[in-house]
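Handout, section 4.2: multi-component inputs.
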Amino acid sequence: MSKKFIQRLGLKDKLLALIVPLLVLAAWQGAVSQKLCSDLILTPPLTLLNTLVELAQSGDLTLNILASLKRVMIGFLLGGTSGFVLGILMALSPFLNSIFGPLIKALQQVPEFAWMPLIIMFLGIDESAKYFFVAIGAFYPMVLNTYQGVSGVPEKYHELARVFDYKSFRYLFKVIIPSALPSIITGIRLSLGLSWMFVVGAELFGSDSGVGYLMTWGRAVFQIDLVMAGLILVGVIGFAMNVLLEIAEKRFLLWREPVDGRPV
Amino acid sequence: MKRFAFNKKTKAILGVFAFPIVLIGLWQLFILAGFSSARFLPPPYKVLQKFVILFSEPTYSHHIAVSLQRVMIGFFIGTLAGFLFGLLMGLSKTAEKIFAPFFHAIRQVPMIGWIPLIIMWFGMNELPRVLIISVAAFYPITLNTFSGVRNVPREYLELASVYGFKGLTLIKKIIIPAALPSIATGISLGLAMSWSVLMVAEIFIQTALGVGTQIQRGRDRFDIALVIAGIITVGVLGYAMTVLVQKIVQAVERGRVISTEK
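Output:
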């Protein structure tokens, strides 16, 4: 939706789009300069920018972003890969599906954050707990979308593969995965988005580095500018990850044209 | 969710019962085989015992009631606000152009990111908890109401102009009924989000009451049975709520008619 939206935007629309952000900024700055609320509670926009610049100059910014990104990557790889493999297995084997299908459905009923206390009891409050938590977030969308994609591979592709006598690996990499790719990529996108959300959650829970830590620290020392800077970082990085994946998606799926030649 | 269903109904019912039994059996075997100490992973009957203890006291039902109430209030506020906002953006292209970019930008920030800020602003009390629950419901309901309203078939609108429907009548008789399936999807998604964010609210914004609080308390006391009992409670309640809303949505959709009476 947002993609279509951006394409449609003309200049007039861009100006209209600026109304709310400008009003918010004005109200924000106004509230602080008119002393409607103390700058302990609401950092003025310029001070916030300043804080971000300071964080960047001191190197704290890069350090914490990298710490978070590392956790996202490891957790995402763990959860995403296992979801991917399990999704394929479940789609290809009705037996495995009847075992893992209900299990996943049952586990999915539990909000992910409810696992947090248990994970911390089992793994302690260190890195492995964070990886595991992020992996849980990455797992569900990946397994569901891979399963959906692979079970939706058209029957004629299977037939063609039989004609060519494609077996096991060749069958998997030449037929199944390429055909299920759109759905798999959707899974990756959702999965990475959730990983980012969960890493912030894990860091808020207890951590000594990362963007979430920046915010907890800001709260602890009552520096609201740090908290707000963290919030902006969380939003911007999440958005950037999504945009990068959208670009990658377009690249990867360029080949995908249906029989009638109409690009998808 | 349906895609995991078995093909036959009987098989499905059997599967529903077979699965937890197998899982519990494996869990028990895991402990019998000595892979884990009882302190670390209590055997299933301990968790069952915990449930019996918990439900024999009125406090646990009270925790559940508080959680449900919290979700309902937040969900109701979020649904109402999301419905009105989505309707506004769906009806007016100008409103969409003004609000949608800001809405999409704010939506990029994961709910969890707001926690430290809203704690600083509102303190550790009920308001921020209900607030993030309602925001969680607000996003999907806004999006789905918007797309439902925007995609009302042209024929319906033409029909409406033949009947001379305008303003509120048009919205009430044509637009909302036509957008209902999409709105219903938004409501189910919104409820799921609310329930999920309830855990965030209860675990991160410390409170005395609520199921999430109980899970957290179990962790503090190293009472793993309590933690597991809490997780099961949350899962079952969430599932029950999802099913309930699905049933309501189905009932509403069955009764859905594009009325031509004024």
